[in-house]
Amino acid sequence: MVKKIKVRNTKLSVVILAAGGSTRLGIPKQLVKFKGASLLSRTTITALNLKALEVIVIIGAYEYKIRKHMRFITNARLVSNKKWGAGMATSIKVAIRSCSVHSEGILFLTTDQPLVKAADLRKIIALWKRNPNHQVASMYNDVLGVPAIIPKRNWGDLKKLSADHGARKILMNDPKTIGIKLSNASIDVDTKEDLLMLKRLC
Residue 97 and residue 103: Cα distance in Å, rounded? Predict the structure, then answer.
């Protein structure tokens, strides 16, 4: 059960990038079950319990299946990326266009980091609140990555991304990016071998 918090993060949008085709896994990773729930529903429920301004789920591949699967989670907004096949950059651009005008930052999440907990995300949010003009990113395996918060001042850089490039380059190239160690984010699910390793760990 995800512990809820009382304070609403009214300036923060949470975006879950879930549009990919899962080509390496061979099945929709968004719908893979882990501890009784799909990776996507687990990530979405965790995001909702952060009490952010909004939770947006960017979908593309397997859209019909995902919409059907998510029909009972009504507080998250599903946004379709019709160009998902052109790479992750298209989903990031759709996310920016979909955010509220009141948003001052986006917390980007993926569905394939199932060990990331709400407590991990709250640490990232707390650090960003103390440094609202800085990017705050998870640090694992000697790199910066998602989960990460990118403030509005950096959205222009996100709009310049192309193909399958995510935000990592922007996070790494900005000397003001603040890293926070998050070992739980180092485990992701891209292949069947990853899935088997995850089950062994848990």
Answer: 11
Query: What is the rounded CA–CA span in Å between residue 92 and residue 24?
Result: 21
Q: What is the pLDDT of residues 76-134, one digit of tens each?
A: 999 999 999 999 999 999 999 999 999 999 999 999 999 999 999 999 999 999 999 99
Strands 33-34 vs 143-151: parallel, antiparallel or unpaired? unpaired
Question: Which tokens hold the place of 109?
Answer: 């999440």
Place of tokens 């947006």: 56
Q: 75-101 burial, b for 16+ CB within 10 Å, e for fewer? A: ebebbbbeebeebbbbbbbbbbebbee
Task: Give tens-digit pLDDT for 152-176.
Answer: 999 999 999 988 888 898 999 999 9
Give the span between the Cα atoms of 173 and 157, in whole angstroms: 11
Q: Kindly tell me the burial class for residue 144, based on how many C-beta atoms sit within 10 Å of its own C-beta (0-12, 13-18, 19 or more).
A: buried
Pairing of strands 143-151, 105-110: antiparallel
Structure-token pair, residue 166: 């995510």
For residues 121 and 107, the answer to whether their CB atoms sit within 8 Å is yes
Residues 6 or more apart from 91 whose CB is under 8 A from it? 17, 19, 58, 60, 81, 84
Separation of CA 88 from chain center: 12
Cα–Cα distance measured from residue 72 to residue 126, given in angstroms and rounded to the nearest whole number: 30
Distance CA 44, CA 131 (A): 25
Report pTM: 0.93
